[in-house]
């Protein structure tokens, strides 16, 4: 099984064979960019976000993904601003953050939802500027059905944070990942953090509808779309999460979507068990 890589919590990254390409050593990478990562993570705009850092590990995650401060990075489905604030400040000097929004014509989106997705993309630079206190010119956005001319092949990284399950349950993962691949430079990389189901979880539980996916399924699916797995980490793992909640991942913090009895059981468990995977775009 692929994620026997989980055998040690101390192994933050496990590179896989990847043609003739070599990833920079993660520890050296983290040390090189420690000041920039620390500055972004400890920025005052993140004061309310820091309570989640112990579960989401942004410094270690971005180091695994080898995100450099001068890169052009796509954040898929930016939401409430948690990762936008980290990335905005980390890339705020020489780099650029691009919000990547769903293709409104894919998935179960009615006309009103489609309009909302397009409005979200149009408003992302101003919203990100409000989130971060940085100039709106530092940010751009697009919906994946309308990639602007000249943008294909320009992104160094695309990050998909806790969103694979939605693509799977909406049946648009194939088209969305193909568009992300189109946006990446040759050799560009895709970083995925995703709620993880147990190996033996039933298919109808681990199909995205409960928020959890099996790691082998994710790896096989992404690789079939023109990527190769080049790194894996247990930094966002949580052995306290059995990942078998009847109501799905939303029983876990921070959602706490159960009744009072369920919330009492899950409140102190931390966030969900998560896989953290790095893929490179194949030629």
Please characterize this protein's 3D structure.
By secondary structure, the chain is of the alpha/beta class. It has one domain: Rossmann fold (3-Layer(aba) Sandwich), CATH 3.40.50. 32% of the residues lie in helices and 19% in strands. It has helices at 26-32, 34-41, 53-56, 58-64, 82-90, 111-132, 164-169, 173-183, 215-224, 260-266; strands spanning 72-76, 96-101, 139-143, 155-161, 184-197, 213-214, 227-233, 274-281. Strands 1, 2, 3, 4, 5, 6, 7 and 8 form an 8-stranded mixed beta sheet that branches. The longest helix has 22 residues, at 111-132. Residues 1-20 have low confidence and may be disordered. Keywords: Methyltransferase, Signal, Transferase. It comes from Qipengyuania vulgaris. This is Methyltransferase. One of its GO terms (biological process) is methylation.
Kindly provide the radius of gyration, computed on alpha-carbon positions and rounded to a whole number of angstroms.
18 Å
What is the number of strand segments? 8
Mean pLDDT: 92
**Strand/helix succession:** HHHHEHEHEEHHEEHEHE
Class based on secondary structure composition and strand pairing: alpha/beta
CATH homolog superfamily: Vaccinia Virus protein VP39
The first-level CATH class name: Alpha Beta
* Named CATH topology: Rossmann fold
Distance between the termini: 26 Å
- Number of helices, where a helix is a run of at least 4 consecutive DSSP H or I residues: 10
Strand content: 15-25%
Runs in which pLDDT lies below 50 for 5 or more consecutive residues are 1-20
Shape: globular
Number of domains: 1
Give a short account of the largest sheet: 8 strands, mixed
**Fraction of residues in helix:** 25-40%
